[in-house]
Amino acid sequence: MKLGPEQNVNMPLKTVLSLITLVSIFTFSYFQITERLNKLETQDTLMQSDLLKKAEQTPKNLELYMLIEELYKQSDKHQELLDKNIHTQVKLDHIAIQLDKALTDIEKLKDKVRQNGNSH
Fold first, then answer.
1. CA dihedral 4, 8, 11, 16 (to 10 degrees)
2. How many CA atoms lie within 13 A of 36 on its CB side?
3. What is the per-residue pLDDT for 19?
4. What gap in Å lies between CA 68 and CA 62, rounded to an integer?
5. Which pTM value belongs to this model?
6. Mean of the per-residue pLDDT values for the chain?
7. Which of 6, 40, 45, 95 is least enclosed, having the fewest CB within 10 Å?
8. What is the DSSP string of 15-60?
9. How confident is the model at residue 102 (pLDDT cuts 50, 70, 90)?
10. What is the dihedral of CA 44, 45, 48, 49, to 10 degrees?
11. Rounded Cα distance, 13 and 89, in Å
């Protein structure tokens, strides 16, 4: 079978309309997907540039970091003093116990001296 310019091709109108509709839908879908990709790429680029700008150190940020560092140093010094005070308290408690024992021993010695002095 040879097709030439003088031969007619019968195609139902329903098929032609279906083909036109399908081509239109595919074309529209392609452009929608392309547009969505472009929007996402633009949004990603803008977000990255915003993050880079925010990541830069400003004088205020540096000042805050210096203040935080100073607070940590002071906190360490306070912890050292607190530890020393705890040790001092333990020593004072120990000395108080020893002093009580010494006073008890002195009272016992006084009582012995009185008893020995009365017996002579």
1. 70
2. 6
3. 93
4. 10
5. 0.37
6. 85
7. 6
8. HHHHHHHHHHHHHHHHHHHHHHHHHHHHHHHHHHHHHHHHHS--HH
9. very high
10. -150
11. 103
Tokens 């705890």, residue? 86
84-96 pLDDT per residue, tens: 777 787 888 888 9
Q: Which residue has the tokens 């333990």?
A: 90
Say which amino acid occupies 13.
Answer: L
Find tokens 């098929």 and name the residue.
Answer: 15
Alpha carbon distance 97, 104 (integer Å): 11
- Structure-token match 């012995």, residue found: 112
Identify the residue with better confidence: 56 or 11: 11
Q: Which range has the top average pLDDT, 7-11, 26-30, 75-79, 115-119?
A: 26-30
Q: Rounded to whole angstroms, how far apart are CA atoms 51 and 35?
A: 24
The dihedral built from the CA positions of residue 63, 65, 67 and 73, taken in this order, carries a sign that is negative
Beta-carbon contacts of 17 under 8 Å, excluding residues fewer than 6 positions away, are: none
